[in-house]
Amino acid sequence: MSEPVDVVLIGGGIMSATLGTLLKKLQPDWKIVVLERLSEVAQESSNAWNNAGTGHSALCELNYMPEGADGSVDPAKAVAINEQFQQSRQLWASLIEHGILDEPSTFINATPHMTFVRGEKDVAYLKKRYEALRTQPLFAGIEYSEDSRVINQWAPLLMQRRRKGEPFAATRVPAGTDVDFGSLTRQLFDHLSGEGVEVLTNIEARKLRRNADGTWKISFRRTLGRTPGSLDARFVFVGAGGWAIKLLQSSGIPEISGYGVFPIGGQWLKTSNPDIVAQHKAKVYSQASVGAPPMSVPHLDTRVVDGEASLLFGPFATFSPKFLKNGRITDIVAQVRPGNIGPMLKVAIDNPGLIKYLVGELLKNHAKKVDSLREFMPTAKDEDWELLQAGQRAQVMKKDPKKGGVLQFGTEVVTSADGSIAGLLGASPGASTAASIMLGLLKTCFPDRIAQWEPELKALIPSYGQTLNGRPDAARASVAETAAALEINV
Question: Which domains occur in the chain, in start order?
């Protein structure tokens, strides 16, 4: 029997790439193996065309700061998301300095983040949100306007042929970013391969079983030839998107009981027309439709992929029972267990608006989707935009002591009691906060080593163990330093 490897990372996305990079810096002697079921890494949620690349920092996303029943707005979650993104920025800046990442423009570019709303109710909400955020150090520079001339300077496509008398407002943060997570992921895995990490593609992990000595047996199948195989590991991370729940369930750890996932696909409208692209340099978010899942907030985005700029609008929700873009139609049924069927049924009962929303989205043809775009961009023409299939998102459903079951926005790490296996469930803001999520995982899964790792972690991520927003001088300095290192020139 061969000796167990130290770490197996299942899934070739940004989460595995980030964790592998951190572990290789912290424990260069460890044997690390990556298993990816497709022929290349970064082909699912980390692929640039499967996500918005917003660099989620709560600068423009309203769902991180909902209005309370009493009309109040609490900036706490928005600040926390921004703190997490700052850690990602710090890590990327350090990796550039160490020669692990290429030139910043190969994966990150300055792109203002905006929020645009219409109607008196949403205008009043956006102003309250602005007032709550403008004094937060990490949101320094946020601007607010109800003046069409000002908004026209920020994003002309929003204002052309806009109906007179319609209430509208916008906020803008010039220091936002567009991130090509596909390029970033590939660069990290290229470095890991050069450092002796085995990055194995066309390998589909099928089952996880605990060995008598506490290690894990990962049974897999080669997708080319379909021949089986296995390897043992002391620690396993399942960063396989929607596939993660299937593998965590197969492991038998009690911590996964009660969890389910609801798959939601998406489509974008895309244009590469240079005349249109030249008129819009921003990521502009608005309010979600009634019943829409939080990840379906409409937005008109500048994207820079492989050095080429384009615009995306969407996402338009689609439905597939698959947990991955390249998943199986049996995925949604295969996850059902006695422990999660109750919470899943409760979510279905409590969210009729979601079903209605999905049906409405599925009935939209290309022309209807361009009609939705015209709410943002009144001058949009059908012939300038093409439909692009985005990735699958598996939104978390879980037990709730009060409601029985809830549909949860965001990401969640599920870890065994002994810390020998962990997996990531959920979606946005995932990729943008990968550094923070993986730092939390290191603390939970390696409590006996974290103290000796902290000097290296603080060198890579200077704000490690601290918050920035409560220290205005530190926040300003950190944002400025990473902006310079990442060449985010506003």
Answer: 5-485 (3.50.50.60)
pLDDT of residue 228 exceeding 90: yes
* Nearest 10 degrees: Cα torsion 133, 136, 137, 138: -50
Task: Judge residue 69's burial from the number of C-beta atoms within 10 Å of its C-beta, 0-12 exposed, 13-18 middle, 19 or more buried.
Answer: exposed
Contacts made by residues 46-49, CB under 8 angstroms, sequence distance 24+: 46/12, 46/13, 46/14, 46/17, 46/181, 46/182, 46/185, 46/431, 47/181, 47/182, 47/391, 48/180, 48/181, 48/182, 48/183, 48/303, 48/305, 48/306, 49/182, 49/268, 49/305, 49/388, 49/390
In the prediction, which pLDDT does 61 show?
A: 93
CB 192 within 8 Å of CB 24: yes
User: pLDDT tens-digit profile of 356-368?
Assistant: 888 888 889 999 9
Question: What confidence tier does 294 reach under pLDDT thresholds 50, 70, 90?
Answer: low
pTM: 0.95
Share above pLDDT 90 across residues of the chain, in percent, rounded to a whole number:
78
- The average confidence (pLDDT) of the chain is 93
Instruction: Report the pLDDT averaged over residues 334-360.
Output: 86
> Over the stretch 182-211, which tens digit does the pLDDT of each residue have?
999 999 999 999 999 999 999 999 999 999
